[in-house]
User: Which sequence fits this backbone?
């Protein structure tokens, strides 16, 4: 039987740097644990545009469809701001999500004990925080038609469409309930059913799906109240499920609560493939950080934790994922810190690759 | 010449209680400062539904159009959750906003020194915070057509439309620049121009308007990054301008940062009327809080500060507004606290009306 396959798309900015550290980890698993992957690499985002005039080449798209998991670094940078909407780096990422049909985006917001002081929130508000935001990723206003800028009368009008079918809501709700079952069995669904009909349908379908998960305590919250409650007392949540656009804002706010954006991974999952594995893409929550690219300042942990999520969700290697996460914890407890996490007394500053090496040692 | 007119719409839940305290303040201004208003009162939200089967009677709408300023308490409550979308309490509020064409919603997020400890954020992150969010209030996905739940194939589809014309963006941008000119001359515009064409148009129009305000430093931020930055270091902002839906989430998050939702007012302004005053409605940011309604626990300060905004923006009585705000500050410095602000040592707990009385004494 052939090895499971991984496509690495480092992308732009700090993407290639942090991905180099993930490579070290993959090699370590091959050498020391005899867990082998067939790894290939390709371009996405601005890097792909520079090479091919498109942020995602059709060949790359085909490769992504064929592998067991995609690991993505980050896309975008000021250099590409002038490009037309249709070829901006982000379009590459959105095309991957859409064509791989990765409808369930898992964004953990976890606060690492060693880093609780980095949050702008009080320590007791964030210490031990561990919530999971499940964001719908392939529909809603990101992809709905009609869209565009049209002429009407004497002026231009910008139009986007929020559109959710029952089955789109149902499948992401189901994935959130499944997750809640493996966690604290609490799910909060967020929309604006008081203002938007798509939110009414969202609430109805989630409520309907909840009948199959009687053990899970389901609640509903308007997304604005959700934003508030995340800032006030985030520990009230276990799993949150919400749509593409609300999920974008709420998961970023939640990520920032932990104080360490350079630490947060994500998984985007689709339907099971023939081999039973879900279509999957893993990426750090942080962006391409062009201001520090190439300086060895980037924190590779978010990207390495994304690989840990791949071990868990794509390759059924939960124990190995835990091993990797523990190694990262050990390194943090020892006070090893990349540039984004400096400021405390008695810590050891390291570069991007220094952090990767420290994690390998801890493994 | 007749007195300026105010229509009071107490609404539901704690609305009537907090509005009773505003009445005391209005009476004080009449008695002691000889500033007289013609005050009338009517129903909105669930209260209007109970009386008339609609959350806003046409007569009330006509009165709101005719007065110089509307003061609104709050709408909604669990009792009305079962109602059809078209007659929910919120529809009354949305109709007022839309038909009065109150396109510019000013939501200050200010942290009162005496209350900085109430924030879930660290004191240095919020102490002295004073930002103003300008939210577009009459367009976008709240009102765009087509909307609804339709049948398609074998399933239902929920649809809402985000729609912004150039002139809608321009007028709210202008009001934000005007505000920035009277503050620290910094404006940050938030959208998702990387994903939504309506965001691209938004960014273009705001940039165009900025040419008329060369003194104002304009920046653009994606709304997800904006949510993050509000949680990380809100003091980086002075004025923020954003659309209806993003404004809903971002202003609620910003409000919660201050730690005291019971303290935050808002003003919704439209075009100038014949008498030069803008169409205007003032309301606290907090909701109807049905769980504590009728118990004398509600904090009337947000509603009283909304009246202060009315003095400033509708009646050109900035000095009187400042007088009222100072009185509130004095009361807080003395340690007078409603139930939402208890927890510290050495404070004096008071009821809703106790707080109103204390403010009158301080005046
Ligand atoms: C880069 C951008 C298109 C993307 C999004 O809006 O989804 C990002 O913000 C994210 O959350 O992954
Ligand atoms: C009550 C609701 C319709 C309203 C809104 O969504 O605008 C509220 O959340 C607000 O922010 O004023």
Assistant:
């Amino acid at each position: 039987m052939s090895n499971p396959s991984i496509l690495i798309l480092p992308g732009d900015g700090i993407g290639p740097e942090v991905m180099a550290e993930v490579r070290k980890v993959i090699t370590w698993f091959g050498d020391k644990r005899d867990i082998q992957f067939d790894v290939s690499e390709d371009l996405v985002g601005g890097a792909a545009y520079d090479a091919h005039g498109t942020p995602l080449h059709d060949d790359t798209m085909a490769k992504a469809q064929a592998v067991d998991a995609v690991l993505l670094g980050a896309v975008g940078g000021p250099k590409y701001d002038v490009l037309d909407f249709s070829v901006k780096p982000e379009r590459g990422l959105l095309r991957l999500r859409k064509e791989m049909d990765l409808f369930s985006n898992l964004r953990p917001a976890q606060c690492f004990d060693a880093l609780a002081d980095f949050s702008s929130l009080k320590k007791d508000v964030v210490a031990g925080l561990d919530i999971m935001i499940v964001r719908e990723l392939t529909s809603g206003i990101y992809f709905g038609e009609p869209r565009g800028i049209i002429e009407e009368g004497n002026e231009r009008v910008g139009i986007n469409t929020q559109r959710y079918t029952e089955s789109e809501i149902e499948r992401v709700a189901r994935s959130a309930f499944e997750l809640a079952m493996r966690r604290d069995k609490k799910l909060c669904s967020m929309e604006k059913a008081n203002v938007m009909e798509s939110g009414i349908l969202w609430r109805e379908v989630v409520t309907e799906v909840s009948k199959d998960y009687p053990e899970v305590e389901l609640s509903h919250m308007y997304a604005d109240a959700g934003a508030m409650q995340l800032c006030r007392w985030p520990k009230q949540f276990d799993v949150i499920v919400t749509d593409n656009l609300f999920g974008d804002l709420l998961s970023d706010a939640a990520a920032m609560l932990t104080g360490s954006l350079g630490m947060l991974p994500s998984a985007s999952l689709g339907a099971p493939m023939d081999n039973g594995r879900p279509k999957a893409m893993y990426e750090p929550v942080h962006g391409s950080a062009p201001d520090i690219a190439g300086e060895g300042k980037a924190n590779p942990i978010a990207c390495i934790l994304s690989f840990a999520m791949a071990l868990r969700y794509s390759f059924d290697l939960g124990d190995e994922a835990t091993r990797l996460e523990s190694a990262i914890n050990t390194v943090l407890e020892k006070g090893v810190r990349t540039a984004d996490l400096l400021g405390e007394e008695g810590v050891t500053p390291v570069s991007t690759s220094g952090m990767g090496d420290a994690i390998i040692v801890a493994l």
